TrEMBL record:
Residues 399-436 form the SWIM-type domain. It comes from the Bacteria. Keywords: Metal-binding, Zinc, Zinc-finger. Signal peptide: none annotated. Residues 438-447 have a biased composition (Low complexity). This is SWIM zinc finger domain-containing protein. Residues 1-23, 438-460 are annotated as: Disordered.
Length: 460
């Protein structure tokens, strides 16, 4: 620990990375002051709280390491809970900083001394942020706290990949003013009020300026799985300017789904994305498997990665025009890049964003057991295609895979249990791979539907 009398500051540093100008040994992400120091400190503590929490089979976990990205016009701090069922992101926008924001990504340590320093930040205290090579430094009036980098949990890589796929299917469902948001969130059950996994999903629907609970999903409803997981927002409620809630479209027969809860702060946004159940971590959702199974997405990902350029808002329509790929193939390429942690999704702007983590896209494919099993089935000649139906033979039994309403269904136990809610089973993946292998490769020319996406700027 170093001590100075220069006032209160935070320094986040990395040992090298990729910038718009190319590789730099010691990229500078940011140096300057935070204009809302107390609210920013509370937001950072919330992200750190999530990283240290375990909501499924609760126990005190060791500290984890939030990821920080400089995107040129904003800073993003991200973390997952230890059970990987909650994803937290604090977006510090340009209005909340006084200084030059650079480009790059690193993971930073948040231990007890740093937490104590952030807790003591007052509303009028100066808070300086600097991003450099190897450590994170918070300087208070009592002196600096220096924290070193440590390895990023590998499970987070799978979580980053899955959350950007899931969140890209969200739309804004409800918006509450500050007073109603604080009242609602303070009324949620505290951790420990339920044991183990949630016994069932809660649902809420907009009701004027607030929310109303409903016992079942209805059109326009938002799933609130494990509501005690939102109590981490208590740290920032005194600074809240409103609440926005995002989720996928649901029907009366929908099962539990993920949702995102975004607290507005002065010059910032703090978003918690909840998995469909306390017992389900994002790392096992399987939303990236279809993109990984597409052979052309690997080449497309190499092309699209060159065009990302650290943009804080990555538009599919723009990438389609620049790359000559269809929007569908751009989307698949972004999903594949997401498996290396290079792509995130911002529900507030309905757009992707670029980050860099030290992983390669092939790692997720090599480490995914369902995808490995599917490729093994294809290599063994276990897939027999027959129009819209396919037979997949596994040892002494067979499974029938059918196309229905744009997706594949299967007669296996996995499909019977999850109904596609956790991605395709290995048999359906094998059928997709076999069909793509048998079909002639598509060109990069855009279809009429894709051109409509481009002309309207559609991102989904």
């Amino acid at each position: 620990m170093r001590r100075t009398a220069e006032g209160r500051s935070i320094g986040l540093e990395t040992s090298g990375g990729t910038t718009p100008a190319g590789q730099e040994a010691h990229p500078r992400f940011f140096h300057g002051f935070l204009t809302h120091p107390q609210a920013t400190a509370a937001g950072l503590l919330c992200v750190a709280d999530i990283a240290a929490a375990r909501y499924y089979q609760p126990q005190l976990d060791h500290w984890r390491d939030p990821v920080v990205t400089g995107n040129g016009d904003r800073l993003r701090f991200e973390s997952f809970s230890a059970c990987c069922g909650v994803y937290a992101r604090l977006d510090v926008l340009g209005d909340a900083v006084d200084g030059e924001i650079g480009h790059g990504t690193t993971n930073v340590d948040v231990n007890a001394p740093l937490r104590d320093a952030l807790t003591r930040v007052g509303a009028s205290d100066p808070l300086r942020l600097e991003v450099g090579p190897d450590d994170m430094t918070v300087t208070t009036f009592d002196g600096p706290v220096v924290e070193k980098k440590v390895p990023l949990p590998e499970r987070w890589l799978r979580g980053f990949a899955e959350t950007q796929v899931i969140a890209s299917g969200f739309d804004l469902r409800a918006e509450l003013p500050a007073g109603e948001a604080v009242r609602y969130l303070r009324g949620l059950p505290r951790p420990g009020a339920t044991r183990g996994a949630s016994t069932g999903a809660r649902w809420v629907v907009p009701a004027g300026r607030s929310l109303r609970a409903t016992t079942r999903p209805v059109p326009g409803a938002v799933c609130l799985p494990g509501p005690e997981r939102l109590t981490a927002l208590a740290r920032v409620l005194r600074h809240a300017t409103g609440l926005r809630i995002y989720g996928p479209a649901v029907t009366a027969g929908s099962g539990p789904v993920a949702s995102a809860w975004e607290i507005g702060l002065p010059g910032m946004r703090l978003t918690l994305t909840l998995s469909p159940d306390t017992a389900r971590g994002f790392s096992g959702e399987g939303g990236v498997l279809d993109a990984l199974a597409a052979d052309e997405s690997a080449e497309d990902a190499d092309l699209v990665s060159v065009l990302l350029a650290w943009n804080p808002v990555v538009e599919i329509a723009d990438l389609a025009v620049q790359s000559g790929l269809t929007p569908h193939r751009v989307r698949a390429a972004l999903t594949r890049l997401g498996t290396a942690g290079r792509i995130g999704y911002d529900t507030a702007e309905a757009a992707y964003f670029h980050r860099e983590l030290p992983y390669d896209t092939g790692r997720a494919e090599r480490d995914n057991p369902r995808l490995r099993a599917a490729r093994a089935l294809v290599d063994a000649g276990a897939v027999r295609l027959d129009g819209e139906t396919a037979i997949v033979t596994v040892e002494d039994h067979s499974h029938r895979v059918r196309s229905a309403e744009g997706r594949l269904t299967c007669t296996c136990r996995w499909w019977a249990e999850y109904r596609g809610g956790r991605g395709p089973c290995r048999h359906a993946l094998a059928v997709r791979i076999a069909r793509r292998t048998a079909a002639p490769r598509t060109t990069t020319s855009t279809t009429a539907h894709d051109k409509a996406d481009i002309s309207t700027g559609a991102t989904r």
